Amino acid sequence: MFHRSTADTDALLAQWEALGTALGCPANTWMKEGQHLLHSWQRWPRAYHNASHLQACLDHWQTVQNELPGALEQPHAVALALWFHDAVYWPWSAHNEARSAQWASRFLSDQLLQTSLVRTVHEHIMATCHNPGVLQGDATWVVDIDLAVLGQSDAVYRQFERNVRKEYFFVRWPRYVAGRSAVLQGFLDRPRIYHNEWFFYRYEAQARANMRNALDALQAGQIYA
């Protein structure tokens, strides 16, 4: 069974409205797109990549804004990237980030926002492919925020792993174990998971412990109960 997100859609729409107001966008088309976005974020078969994940990302964005004023070079671009980064999500597709970035670029261009802002949002979304490599500037914050779940409590992380498995229900267990193990090991092999010190000191150690435990469970033929 797949559970719908428990995120407060009214609260999310209020945050979307505030972002549009800050950018000076027409309220009618902006809010219509916000409703379209939230509908997409809650599509089947999302169990983790849903509106609750979006809200968690926006909460981290706001916390960084509050605790580290000025850390984000373009906070509105970061917020937009978070809103759109999983706007398209089909677990069997390798093109989710690209299609999400295209959606963002198309809509933001129609809003007559600056070309440089549209390009930056597109680049931030593509950074959430989480490929190894060097990131700079606000892209590092977008990626750290997206990966914040890895460093949460054991209980939260276990639920995350269960939800990821629900999304990949169509993959046979042996293949899932191999694929998921490769993903987890890939992160563990990196010198560090989080780019920014603010995330690194809060979540790095816990993230590594969580992923090692998940790897052990997978190798034992188990998914968290």
Tell me what you see in this structure:
The structure is a single chain. The chain is mostly helical. It has two domains: 9-133, no CATH class; 150-219, no CATH class. 65% of the residues lie in helices and 0% in strands. It is built from ten helices and no strands. Helix 6 (115-127) crosses helix 7. The longest helix is centred in the C-terminal third of the chain and has 23 residues, at 197-219. It is globular.
List the helices and strands and how they pair.
Layout: H1 9-23, H2 27-41, H3 51-67, H4 75-84, H5 96-110, H6 115-127, H7 138-146, H8 154-167, H9 173-188, H10 197-219
Helix pairs in contact: 1-2, 1-4, 3-4, 4-6, 4-7, 5-6, 6-7, 9-10
Tags for this model:
single chain; 225 residues; mainly alpha; 2 domains; 10 helices
Rg from Cα: 17 Å
What's the average pLDDT?
95
DSSP strand content: under 5%
Number of helices: 10
Class inferred from helices and paired strands? mainly alpha
Outline = globular
Mind describing the biggest β-sheet?
Answer: none
Number of strands: 0
Sequence of secondary-structure elements: HHHHHHHHHH
Uncertain spans: none
Instruction: Give helix % range.
Output: 55-70%
The gist of it:
It is built from ten helices and no strands. The chain has helices at residues 9-23, 27-41, 51-67, 75-84, 96-110, 115-127, 138-146, 154-167, 173-188, 197-219.
